[in-house]
Design brief:
single chain, 4-stranded antiparallel beta sheet, 31 strands, 5-stranded antiparallel beta sheet, about 725 residues
């Protein structure tokens, strides 16, 4: 029969029931319609509920049986709803390459009389490829089909199976499955709430006693479109609230699931299908049938090992709420059927078990639920005895390598093996090529982040009271410091501001400098609300919580840094050196500004003396929209993602100023003269013309000076993630 067509040939009344329910009862099952702040999470799900109980309704069902508990329940029917969404109508939701293949593969397996034994009329398939509108995977169709099918599973011995391959969005702790017609911007109104699915399957109308969930989550997505992420804590906690089910997930917290390109499926789903076809039994007791325990072990081991071979991290999660031996499918070549024995008295479930840890790295410390329990041996399993049955937290640490942490399920039956994919980091690079473009700047940041074991190139520091400080990772590298143009050339370029050649002499000679270590730098100039969160006051004249703090002396900034380092975990905050500041400002540019040499483009990148400022030396031809300080981040960022490096406020640096310091400075990490009278300032301000806003500009003043056009931003050493 047509795999996409729902049939009610043997149940005519149910056809009418389904039609009446399609646009009504689906909306009375707890679907939330309240919009909340959206945070995109990209999940290619596979959700499958069932214990695959044997059935008395179909002829093939008699071949698949369950060893029941002592309650004497019989066998019931088996029903399935399979959903695959690969192509979304919303262009902001990225395409999933193998969603349809995953669902169609499961449909073929379930309806194969020699393997799954489901009656084809009891399996509903909704995909993008459906020839009719009724079987497209829209929100209404999904809810209507699931509502009707859950009502059919009215016998405690029945099985109900729900499979979803597609995306999901987490919005303020609620998870929504994205149907074909969903909108990423309003998932609460257009998606299918996961809690509503649970309500349908655990409600009074759906009486199937045991259920299994398979979730293939958190795919990384198609480049250039909506990106995905790892399984969130909120979603993980949602899974752990589902009672009376067996829950399988392709990965655990903080991990992603990946596609098995060579097989044309998600990796987890490929091993799930392979296991159900008989591979799990071949690796188990070889009795000709795949049971739940065999499948759990097979999928767990195969998926995690597959990921390790590709230097990825993916460890399936499993939570078991069911009891009894559950036969899922007939293995290929299986002969006969398992004999259902009379119920035996239940034996006590062991409270502890053995967990074997495998790792390619030698000498890494193994922590179980926070306690040090052993070290890894390269090429050998390390057995951990007396491990509590159930969910345990594993953490494996090796100095100089990214830490690995995951929650795993320790089963009372069979072997428990976990492959820990500790990966050696690439070495930190001091990049020599300069100048470089924005794409290269981003690549260097990301590569440096990976070498440090970081999850991204930005981090936030909580200052309390809801105020946060955002830092951007700046990679190590070489650059030419100072002006490429001569003083005379610069004076001619800025002659309309009555520039004199001697103004530019301290910027020469241009010389090569190596910044040998990566560092964090404030994405923005320090704001007034950030200063106030640490110091308790606001010395600025031009008030605004998001405006840069000004009217602070170099000495007062030292007091701020001292308090910040005492408050923030790890400390390490300072003012940038003059070399760090110019290197970060240029962001790969060898021109006068981070964006090139065009003075008439400066108003897009910085707040400087324009017609709004109305000073004698203002650029009367430009309009940046602000007469004095502007809120940080209002202008375009440079290639490293730093805002307001040109203009807004001058920024204090840590160095003493030396007018002839550039004549013979050290090449590696220069920090300025050993002493002096003035401290360095960089970047220009809202009260300065463009000549003072160039990357190479060197300002200076006494460390006690306070001006309405002087502020600062912070740097922090970049440490290896543990």
């Amino acid at each position: 029969m047509d795999a996409h067509r729902l049939r009610f040939d043997s149940h005519p009344p149910r056809a009418m029931m389904w039609l009446s329910l399609r646009f009504s009862e689906a909306f009375r099952n707890g679907i939330s319609l309240q919009p909340e702040g959206t945070r995109m999470r990209r999940w290619a799900w596979v959700a499958m509920w069932a214990l695959m109980l044997g059935g008395a309704q179909a002829q093939d069902a008699r071949d698949l049986r369950v060893v029941p508990r002592a309650d004497g329940r019989g066998h019931g029917g088996r029903f399935a709803v399979l959903v695959a969404v690969g192509d979304y109508e919303d262009p902001n939701i990225s395409r999933l390459k193998y969603a349809a293949a995953d669902a169609e593969g499961l449909y073929a397996l379930l309806t194969d009389p020699a393997v799954g034994g489901f009656a084809a009329e009891d399996v509903v398939l909704l995909t993008d490829k459906a020839p009719d509108a009724v079987h497209k995977p829209t929100r209404n169709n999904i809810l209507a089909m699931l509502t009707a099918t859950s009502k059919r599973a009215a016998n405690p011995a029945d099985t109900i199976l729900f499979f979803f391959a597609g995306h999901g969005i987490e919005e303020d702790g609620q998870t929504y499955l994205l149907s074909r017609d969903a909108l990423a911007s309003i998932p609460a109104q257009s998606g299918v709430e996961l809690a509503a699915v649970r309500k349908l399957l655990t409600g009074k109308d759906c009486r199937a006693a045991r259920k299994i969930i398979f979730l293939d989550c958190c795919h990384s997505g198609e480049p250039g479109r909506a990106a995905g992420g790892a399984m969130s804590d909120a979603f993980y906690q949602e899974l752990n609230r589902w009672e009376g089910m067996v829950t399988f997930s392709a990965c655990t917290q903080k991990e992603k699931s990946y596609d098995f390109e060579e097989k044309g499926h998600g990796a987890f789903t490929w091993f799930l299908l392979d296991g159900l076809r008989g591979a799990a039994d071949a690796a188990g007791d070889k009795d000709g049938f795949v049971d739940l325990g065999e499948l759990q072990k097979y999928v767990w081991q195969k998926t995690s090992a597959w990921a390790v071979q590709r230097r990825l991290v993916q460890n399936p999660f499993c939570r078991v709420e069911a009891t009894g031996v559950v036969y899922l499918t007939r293995a290929a070549g299986g002969s006969g059927i398992p004999v259902v024995q009379p119920p035996k008295p239940e034996t006590p479930v062991p409270m502890t078990t053995t967990l074997k840890i495998g790792c390619e790295v030698d000498g890494a410390s193994i922590y179980l639920n926070g306690q040090l329990v052993g070290t890894t041996r390269a090429g050998h399993w390390v057995p951990l005895a007396n491990v509590p049955v159930g969910a345990v937290r594993l953490r494996v640490l090796k100095e100089g390598l990214p830490a690995w942490e995951s929650e795993v399920q320790a089963s009372a039956a069979g072997e428990n093996q976990v492959v820990v994919p500790l990966q050696t980091r690439p070495k930190l690079t001091v990049y020599k090529e300069w100048p470089f473009d924005a794409a290269e700047a981003k690549r260097r940041q990301e590569e440096t982040g990976r070498a440090l074991g970081l999850k991204g190139v930005e981090e936030e520091v909580d200052l309390g009271g809801g105020v946060k400080l955002t830092l951007v990772l700046i990679p190590a590298g070489e650059f030419l410091m100072g002006s490429a143009e001569t003083s005379e050339e610069l004076a001619r370029m800025y002659s309309r501001f009555k520039a004199e050649a001697k103004w530019f002499d301290p910027e020469h000679p241009q010389h090569r400098v190596r910044i040998t270590k990566p560092f964090w730098m404030g994405k923005y100039e320090l704001t007034q609300e950030q200063w106030e969160a640490v110091m308790g006051d606001n010395p600025s004249q031009y008030k605004g919580p998001k405006n840069p703090v000004e009217s602070v002396s170099w000495n007062e900034v030292q007091g701020f840094l001292q308090k910040l380092n005492a408050r923030a975990a790890g400390g390490g905050f300072a003012l940038p050196t003059e070399a760090q500041w110019e290197y970060a400002c240029r962001a790969g540019s060898g021109d006068q500004f981070s964006f090139g040499n065009a003075q008439n483009s400066l108003h897009r990148y910085g707040n400087y003396a324009d017609k709004n400022t109305n000073l004698d030396f203002s650029d009367k031809e430009a309009d940046d929209g602000f007469p004095n300080t502007a809120p940080v981040g209002r202008f375009l960022a440079n290639a490293f993602g730093l805002h307001d490096m040109h203009g807004n406020v001058l920024e204090w640096c840590s160095d003493w100023y030396g007018e002839r310091y550039y004549d013979a400075p050290p090449s590696d990490d220069p920090t300025g003269p050993a002493d002096g009278r003035f401290r360095v300032l960089g970047g220009g301000s809202w009260g300065f013309n463009p000549s003072y806003c160039r990357s190479a500009y060197r300002g200076w003043d006494v460390p006690t000076a306070r001006y309405v056009f002087v502020g600062f931003r912070v740097v922090r050493s970049a440490r290896t993630s543990e």
